[in-house]
Amino acid sequence: MAKGKVVVNQDECKGCGLCVESCPQKGMALREELNHYGVHPAQQVEDVCTGCGICYYVCPEPGAIVVYKVVAEAPRSEVLNAATV
Amino acid sequence: MSEYKVTQSKAPVFFEYFDRKDENRHQTHYCPGCGHGVAHKLIAEALGDLGVQEDTIVVSPVGCSVFAYYYFNTGNVQAAHGRAPAVATALKRSNPKATVISYQGDGDLAAIGTAEIVHAANRGENITVFFVNNSIYGMTGGQMAPTTLVGQESTTSPWGRRPNNEGFPIKMSEMLATLEAPAYIERVALSDAKHILQARKAVHKALELQKQGAGFTMVEILSPCPTILKMEPVVARQWVHDVLTKHFPLGVFRDHKPEFTPVDVPQKPIAELLGITGSKLTEEEKHSRRQHTRAKTIKVAGFGGQGVLLLGQLIAEMGMREHMEVSWLPSYGPEMRSGSANCSVTLSHERIGAPVITRPEVLVAMNEPSLRKFGATVKTGGVILYNGRALPEDLHYEGVSVACIPASEIADQIGSARVANVIMLGALLEATDCLPFTTASHVLANFVKNQKLAEMNEKALAAGRDFLDKEILVGAVAGPDGCGE
Ligand SMILES: Cc1ncc(C[n+]2csc(CCOP(=O)(O)OP(=O)(O)O)c2C)c(N)n1
Ligand code: SF4
Ligand code: SF4
Prior knowledge:
The complex is a heterodimer of chains A (85) and B (485).
Chain A: E1 4-8, H1 18-22, E2 28-30, E3 42-44, H2 54-58, E4 65-69, H3 76-82
Antiparallel strand pairs in A: 1-4, 2-3
Chain B: E1 5-8, H1 35-50, E2 56-60, E3 75-78, H2 84-94, E4 99-105, H3 106-112, H4 114-122, E5 128-133, H5 163-166, H6 172-176, E6 184-189, H7 193-211, E7 217-222, H8 226-229, H9 233-247, E8 251-255, H10 270-273, H11 283-290, E9 296-303, H12 308-321, E10 325-332, E11 340-348, E12 362-365, H13 368-374, E13 383-387, E14 401-405, H14 407-414, H15 420-432, H16 437-447, H17 451-471
Parallel strand pairs in B: 2-3, 2-4, 4-5, 5-7, 6-7, 9-12, 12-13, 13-14
Antiparallel strand pairs in B: 6-8, 9-11, 10-11
Helix pairs in contact in B: 1-7, 3-4, 12-16, 14-15, 14-17, 15-17, 16-17
The structure holds thiamine diphosphate (TPP) and iron/sulfur cluster (SF4) (2 copies).
């Protein structure tokens, strides 16, 4: 079980691919299938997520990505400082 | 033990649903990969972290981010193209505790709005400007912006920007940093994760400084516009990194406490500034004085030259003397003489939000065109005072009291057509009881220094009152033939 996971809202995602390109673990990909709005939405495909939150910050959509982490709740700033960017 | 917890999700400063669209209402209107969305997210997060959502007002510009008000669950104002810093100035000065954001594109800020941004910065307004520089006009389809790079193609520089014809790109951050007043200016880029996290810090810092009252803060955000640049989102972002950032170097251009100590402008009551305070009253006395006054919204309309605007001013000044809240808003026709003019006067016991009156409780119509224009706008239960012997035959007003006062004729008899407006004032006070007659006398006496005219004014005031008192049954709805029953 990876330290983190992300869930992409398949309707809100516009398929820009910025998260895919930015993920340090290379755990994201655009799906083969089109969504209802005609784009290939992003999805987590590898169980390598560290929960660093980078995909969240590079994504232009306010709520397309939700990031989860296994840790006991950590404040945002700590999460970011831990991130390797 | 190992349970997943949410660490990042939609900032609560965003609306849960965006009303702009009928479906997919949680998605923005921005193109895929547009930097505006990222900028919005950083701002929303910082506002939440600083705990200022409830006190924040976002001024959105003209440009692709014109719809920012659909996203930020804060106070929102949408300004005319380029004017956001001026609007933000007014908002901040009238709500000093608010966090005020001017969100602007590069066409908005660096082209049509050059004057506003320069002077807001120069005055050290305690606002935060987020300047999204994508090197182009996005919304209108890719015209050259002042920030367009040398050689960069746009629809209005199809051969690439040539400095000898279109000038050089303007570096706004550097330019504004030459001014004394700004407290903080930084340029950041949404070019990759690392830089986005730097931008996140800058956004937070600027808003925090505003909260501390530091003065003018601006974050210039280099941002990808994949659509107009005709690049894939990932490529556009790389272009920001490889090209845009080279021409617009990142960094902090200003980070200091401004040299001047902000001067607290004493907020004197207007009445005091105008020297019409009279005796100082306690809150209790004010309250009891207010028993003799009534809140009213009044529209006065007529030809220019009939003293329409002046009548409004007189009423407003009377209200001030009676410690009411007042507003007076003139509206001129194309020409002052014989053109139409009107003004809106609000007399209130509460602070007045907006001085605009679309449905007045009282209409003073000094001529027929004004009656035709505004008669139907009078609120049910309201009063129309018409300068004429009778209503035009085709006009009927349901649910409002109408009084026809031949003010121009009476004024003639008194000796000057100029006092017709004062006759209407007398009638208005009698009909509405909004203010005491004695106050009208004081204000008029203060206003008119010429002895003869002052006497005529007194007569006019009394004539208006008496006419209404004797000849008109106030409260009666007029028949088509005339006034009252
Ligand atoms: C007074 C006025 N002039 C011109 C326009 C047309 N107009 C709309 S958006 C825009 C440019 C916006 O460009 P920018 O500020 O760079 O914002 P972007 O769309 O790139 O985010 C222009 C010129 C307008 N709406 N109002
Ligand atoms: S960055 Fe956001 S919008 Fe773009 S592909 Fe990833 S989830 Fe979708
Ligand atoms: S045109 Fe450019 S600035 Fe406008 S929404 Fe699209 S990508 Fe963003």
